[in-house]
Amino acid sequence: VQLQASGGGLVQAGDSLRLSCATPKRTSSNNAMAWFRQAPGKEREFVAAISWRGEVLSYADSVKGRFAISRDNAKNMMYLQMNTLKPEDTAIYYCAVAKGARTTSYKDYIYWGQGTLVTVSS
Asked: CA of 115: how far to CAs of 22, 61, 99, 109, in Å?
């Protein structure tokens, strides 16, 4: 199963980026989706999750009020709008699909994309 994350890049602190994730319909149907990120030398961490029906399940405290997750099931797409970016947001961002409609548990996310790099300069 191949998820395709895109939209990363090099930006300055305070800028915005919108990440996209394309998924096979048979994979994302009826399942929650989420964004995770992994900074250099750190473990992968949760960013945001959204239910199959488009309800936002959770945001990491570090991104609340700045990031917004959404999905378009008709297009089999998920998005992450990132505003007021900070240098500490620098990471590879991964999209993932869970086995389950409303989960935020890492262990339930079984399909992963290849990641897209976001670099925020100060």
From this structure: 12, 21, 19, 15
Please list, in sequence order, all residues whose beta carbon lies within 8 angstroms of the beta carbon of residue 50, skipping any fewer than 6 positions away: 32, 33, 34, 56, 57, 69, 70, 71, 78
What is the tens place of the pLDDT at every residue in 28-53?
788 999 999 999 999 999 999 999 99
19 Cβ contact list (under 8 Å, min separation 6)? 5, 6, 7, 8, 35, 79, 80, 82, 93, 95, 116, 118
**Rg of the chain over CA atoms, in angstroms?**
13
| Greatest Cα pair distance in the chain | 41
First to last CA, the chain: 36
